[in-house]
Amino acid sequence: MIQFISHYNERYSYLDSIRLALEGGCRWIQLRMKDATVDEIREVAIEAQRMCKEAEAMFIIDDQVALVKELHADGVHLGKNDMPIDEARRILGPEYVIGGTANTFEDIVQHVKNGADYIGCGPFRFTTTKKGLSPVLGLEGYKSIARNINKVGIDIPIVAIGGITADDIPDILATGIDGIALSGTVLNADNPVLEMQRLLEIAK
Amino acid sequence: MTTSDRGFSFYVGLTYPQSFRAMKINVNNKETDTNANNLMALAQELSLPAAGVAMAISNRMIPRTEWESTTLSEGANVIIIKAACGG
User: Fold this and answer.
1) Best residue in A29, A154, A156, A172 for a mutation probing chain B (most B CBs within 10 Å)
2) What CATH number corresponds to the domain at position B67?
3) Is the ipTM of this complex over 0.90?
4) Is B47 an interface residue toward A (CB < 8 Å)?
5) Distance between CA atoms of B53 and B42, rounded to whole angstroms?
6) Domain region containing B42
7) Which of A30, A56, A139, A162 is at a distance of 20 to 30 A from A49, taking alpha carbons?
8) Domain assignment of residue B40, yes or no
């Protein structure tokens, strides 16, 4: 299971990245435009949501709880410095998917308690996409987290995130983690559509 | 066991295999008994809401329009992402 997080580079815009990911078969998109204004995000989000609807993909927006409600997106992803999950749940009610970023098992337990529906757990390794990140988890970190969540019976999906490339996917999924969130590795490929297809095939 | 006992269990086995033998699958890594033979039936069995739900089988997200044609078999690994209180 792969979540694609929007990204841009010198070749592609945020919207291009989402279009390419959908063309490659990805059905779970997170729109993330970290330093953009709400108006800028809204403009892209409306079109991204249309594309996701057409492809029947789940459409999540990073951080912007009010915008998620306004556009009736499928859900929101909340990073460590975003709105607390329980507050977002109060605003959005039960009908929106809320994802939360976690670095430790304790974070995950807290997020579940606060009403999260899935967890983006990382970083797997050091990445330049996000600044000021928590310590890297590596495979051992995921193994330990997967063991712990099984022990306490947490049953929401956990996706690994942070600098993950194709070669890492089998090992990460083997730890018991449910899915992978990807960004840079898709857009940096010569052919992002083929790369997404390949990644989905590897994650099968 | 008498002959008639054996005969009876054989009869039941032939006639009601589905209702008597729930299949075991994994839903979000938890072993789950189900009578559903496709994703749509599973969604109904689990009372999943009409919107804001995604289902993956063997790590592949399946669009809602393909839920009915996506069959479940013993030991299938299903992951469901859904809003907390939506189902």
Assistant:
1) A156
2) 3.10.20.30
3) no
4) no
5) 13
6) 23-82
7) A162
8) yes
